[in-house]
Amino acid sequence: MNIEEFRDFCLSFNRVSEEFPFDENTLVFKVMGKMFALCDVDEFESINLKCDPSIAMQLREEYPGIVIPGYHMNKRHWNTIVMENNIPDQTIQKWISNSYDLVVANLPKKDRMNLH
């Protein structure tokens, strides 16, 4: 997956915005103002995705050195995925979808109702 494919997939979800809230290199994808994915646009060496803590640990064990605790993030709730490996796009898309769904599930009910 390259950065254009990553961006297109993230933007395919309902009510997603893209922003540069931290600096000019860190592209952040948000749903209703809450982050679910981010990456460095210049290097695209890795992506950060929100993850259920128990699943995050499983993925880190299953993909050592590829899925690591979230860089500059809450390491319990975020994973960094190293993109230079041969992880199938379907797997990365599943992780992105899970991140989006996790954030949506934690939105207030009225915001969840406004997603469609």
From TrEMBL:
Protein name (record): MmcQ/YjbR family DNA-binding protein
Any Pfam family the entry gives: YjbR
Keywords: DNA-binding
Origin species: Rhodohalobacter sulfatireducens
GO molecular function: DNA binding
InterPro entries named among the record's database cross-references: YjbR, YjbR-like_sf, YjbR/MT2646/Rv2570-like
Top-rank lineage group of the source organism: Bacteria
